[in-house]
Write a structure and sequence with these properties.
By secondary structure, the chain is an alpha/beta fold. The chain has a single domain, classed as 3-Layer(aba) Sandwich (Rossmann fold), CATH 3.40.50. 34% of the residues lie in helices and 25% in strands. The protein is built from seven helices and ten strands. The strands form two sheets. The chain has a six-stranded mixed beta sheet with strand order 6-7-8-3-9-10. Strands 2-1-4-5 form a four-stranded antiparallel beta sheet, covered by helices on one side. Belongs to the ABC transporter superfamily. Macrolide exporter (TC 3.A.1.122) family. Pfam families: ABC_tran (PF00005).
Length: 229
């Protein structure tokens, strides 16, 4: 496994309504490294900036200052086309709501990022089926999202996020929309697959019991990351 961090954030700062009376400083010099295969929990009260931090780490937003590196590549030094390619190929996202495309089957949803990256259809199908089998959904591959339970749909979303073997997996409250038993199973699966696939994983959660089972748990407090107590 590579010694290069899957994700490195250095001095990340972000302020909303900058220079206005309602200015809100959300991130104040965040530093973070996530190693390949490492799972890191991110906790914070609602509105503290977890989603902002994940969006910056995932190249969906830009910081006011600071540096984002994905697999050793400085995202800030890239043009828009290269930045988009890095986001597509090296970052996997899982959200609270699965956001599967309803007109496609589970298998097709997992295949889509592979096809978008230029993978041949046969190999994309093999990879997608292997992932669905790993999460116990091979028998549901032909089902559309409306035919899946919430837990099943979220497992498909995890497979989709891992399809391109990204360097870093980012998850924003991935079990927040599930009942406790299903959340437990999905969370355990997400952490296990990230380790087995060799991805670093940064997972935002309000559930401190689940966070405590990860390699590290950090808390976003006053715009900075501190060890979660």
């Amino acid at each position: 496994m590579s010694d290069v961090p899957a994700l490195r954030l250095t001095g990340i700062a972000r302020t909303y309504a900058k220079g206005l009376p309602g200015e809100v400083r959300v991130l104040s010099g965040v530093d973070l490294e996530v190693a390949p295969g490492e799972t890191v929990a991110l906790t914070a009260p609602s509105g503290a900036g977890k989603s902002t931090l994940l969006h910056i780490a995932g190249l969906l937003d830009r910081p006011d200052s600071g540096r984002v590196e994905i697999g050793g590549r400085d995202a800030g030094a890239l043009g828009e086309r290269a930045r988009t390619a890095l986001r597509r190929d090296a970052i996997g996202f899982v959200y609270q709501f699965h956001h599967l495309l309803r007109e496609f089957t589970a298998l097709e949803n997992v295949m889509l990022p592979l096809l978008a990256a230029g993978q041949g259809r046969r190999r994309a199908r093999e990879r997608a089926m292997a992932l669905l089998d790993a999460v116990g959904l091979a028998g549901r591959a032909a089902h559309r999202p409306a035919q899946l339970s919430g837990g099943e749909a979220q497992r498909v979303a995890i497979c989709r996020a891992l399809a391109n073997r990204p360097r870093i997996l980012l998850a924003d409250e991935p079990t927040g929309n599930l009942d406790p038993d299903t959340a437990e199973r999905v969370f355990a699966l997400l952490a296990r697959l990230a380790r087995e696939e060799g991805q670093g994983a940064l997972i935002a959660t309000h559930n401190m019991e689940l966070a405590a089972r990860m390699d590290r748990a950090l808390r976003l407090e006053r715009g900075r990351l501190v060890p979660a107590s």
